[in-house]
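Re: that chain you flagged

S.,

Sorry for the slow reply, it's been a week of failed gels. I finally had a moment to sit down with the sequence you sent. For the record, here it is as I used it:
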Amino acid sequence: MTIINIWNNLVNSGTRNNSRDRKNKKIRVANIALIISALALNSFSLLNLYLGFPELILLDFIISLVALFCVYLNKKRKFKLSNFITFGLLPGMFFIYPFFVGNIGAEYYYFFFLVVGFYILDKKRTIYIYSIYIFMLFIGSKYAIYHNSFDVKYIILETVHYYPSIVASIIMTVIATYVFKNDTIIYEKAIESKNTELEQIKEQINKQNELLEERNLALASLHNDLTASLDYASQIQKSILLPEFDISEHFQSFFILNKPKDIVSGDFYWFKDLGDKQLIAVVDCTGHGVPGALMTAMGNTLLNEIVVNSKIVKPGKILDELTNKLSQTLNLGLKEDQVSDGMDMALCSIDKKKNTIEFAGAKRPLYHFSGNQFIEYKSTRASIDGTQSIATQFKTTKIDFKKHDRFYMFSDGYPDQFGGKTEKKEKLLIRIFKEILQNFQDKSMSIHKELLETKLVEWQNKEVQTDDIIIIGFEV
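Prediction finished late last night. Pasting the structure tokens below so you have them in one place:
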């Protein structure tokens, strides 16, 4: 390790990354002041050795050790203790010289300590107290020199030490000042460089912000266009569905709870009045949002075509034919990959003259409440999908009903909704849904929609809606 490396390591003891920031600058000035003090004292020790003053050699050595110990404290970042010794104890130790050896110029080192203190100490109050302390040491030293009598052997020291001490104190002050000013210039240049860099970064950020703002405006415009398109699609979808009021005229009591997850829905209801019979269905299409909405339009069209054009009115046969037509429509022109999208459905044909209902379901059941009796009619365990596999034969179930019997058809959105009062969110499940409907049977069906909505909000407990929801209830 070279002398320059040793010097740099000592000077930078206690600094962070050898940078010239404000705090590191003060640490470097303190280290340099302490090191050059130790070097000056050891230089005079050699002179005292030559002149034969061992007691002065010991005093110089002790003070230089104290100075180097402060450098070690700075390295350990014990700055408070180091500053106390540097600006409190060390100047006091120099006070020993004029009391015992007379006028050797040691009091002029106080100017060096005073200048270094101005560079390093922060608080004005501390600087004032320190200045008074140094001034009192200087006055006390002068008093001791001119009012004490000294051994004759020390008279030679006045000639040998006095002017070199003055010169040494001046040189030490100049070195400390140079280091402080040089570090200040480097620090200011570094700050200027950082400010320039920050300005460049700020300019880049501003450009990025402008670009982001432009993109946000473009996205907002696109979002508005898409929302407007979806709102229009929603209006078209609603126009396909028969109004609830028109359907309710065919029943003692009737409600539809229709809550799309998005603007447009993948669930829909369908109704057709054939005079002697009424057909009503709840349909849950694959997916939700736009894909689901496209399936609802296709499903509605195909149901009308099957019932009105093909004159098929038996629920099971309707579902069979719907399966065929959906498969043909979805896979038209496709030779390899088949589209497997489809729908689940509950379909009823109501004959009020005979007091009978014919029911067929594709993975969707029919609930029947007759007085205190609850009956669940299971569906065929197959969906109406777009694959051309072996055709499923959908079963038709014939049901006799009495006046004021109640029936419910629904998609899986309501029972599959997540929520609950515990931290671990869970689905509402079909069991709880049945209990909810059973608890409503002593109330008028006209308020069932409102009651179901209230129960759903309570269950969700701020959870977002996870699927389209549709429930139809009718009383015959």
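What I noticed first: The longest strand covers residues 342-351.

Talk soon,
D.
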